[in-house]
Amino acid sequence: MSPRIPISSLPATDQRPLPSSSLAITNIRPLDMTDPCRTAALQQTRQALRNERLQRILEIRTAIQQYLCRELAKAGYVHPPIYMLAGCTDPLNHCTYPARLDYYGEEISLTQSLIFQKILMVMLSPVDKVFWASPNIRMETRTGGRGYKYTTEFMQVDFEQRAASYAEMLPFISSLLGGLYAFLNEHHPATLIQLRGAPLPQLTVDLPVFDVQDIRERERLADDDAVERWAAARTGGRPFFLVNLRREAYDCFDESSGRFLNYDVVLPPHGRNAHPVECLSGAERTRSLADLRRRMAELGYPVEYFRPFFDMFTALDAGDGAISCAGGGFGVERLTYAILGLEDIHAVYPIPRPAEGRIAL
Q1: Does domain 33-348 have CATH number 3.30.930.10?
Q2: Closest Cα partner for 130 from 115, 118, 147?
Q3: What is the pLDDT of residues 153-194, one digit of tens each?
Q4: Annotated domain spans of the chain
Q5: Torsions phi, psi of 354, nearest 5?
Q6: Whole-prediction pTM value?
Q7: CB atoms within 10 A of CB 68
Q8: What is the Cα–Cα distance from 59 to 244, expressed in whole angstroms?
């Protein structure tokens, strides 16, 4: 075991002890309870805690998370400790508020995504398959009228495999979701009937695949959300893949085909839910460290922020900067909301966490 580095030897931190009578919480400004948005958040929390369906909703949420974790473990994936603080974290290729805090005198990030940790694990360590059931903290902006599916804190079952490809991941994810549907139908039939009004459809073949760029051009659709709605009307209530999405720097762009080797799983509207819901996002990863740097620069990522990742990869790499892995992540609350056909994702939360809103407790 490596020796533990004493705090007193760490550079650039404030070593002054707090007064013995001081509590850090005394430095936090209390919530403004006269703010009408705050009182509305309290009312939303009171309603959520008293929701007569809450026990049954959480029964299904628990079953979803347990099933996914069990099946990944059976498939040889291992679960490291959870990391909620990060020297660098995936900022995503869209607008989020920077989730920062002071860590012993140094500003660091709350973990928005474990993608870079997943890549380091499967490419540099002896571990070739990894998964995390991990809380994510992601303060979305510009949600517009889509607050029904956004929360600031959520559980994600993330997985990654060394030497895996886009072509391998699509049937693997189809199998996971098909097994989940069969498991819920067998073990929670009464709850499904009570909450969604019907059993889940049988998923006995791989999920249908829709190419976003092809469909947008052919059908003259305005954006990816329009493609979601178009595809959802054509699958008979069954989940489907959207592929070839233009998004994150670490998604592989295949020069030979001119396509992005990434994928979302989307569940169609059901019951009280009027919207298609993306419940998994994943990809085959950018194939080299050089390509990742180039894509980050193209998308305007602050590359210096990711220096810890690049330095670690370079220090331990034995493959000339090659990256060969693929994976994804299921949003547990989104899956619960979409499977049950609830009115919005906040029905899954006893203490709601709305995006661009107020938090009561």
Answers
A1: yes
A2: 118
A3: 999 999 999 999 999 999 999 999 999 999 999 999 999 999
A4: 33-348
A5: -70, 145
A6: 0.91
A7: 22
A8: 35
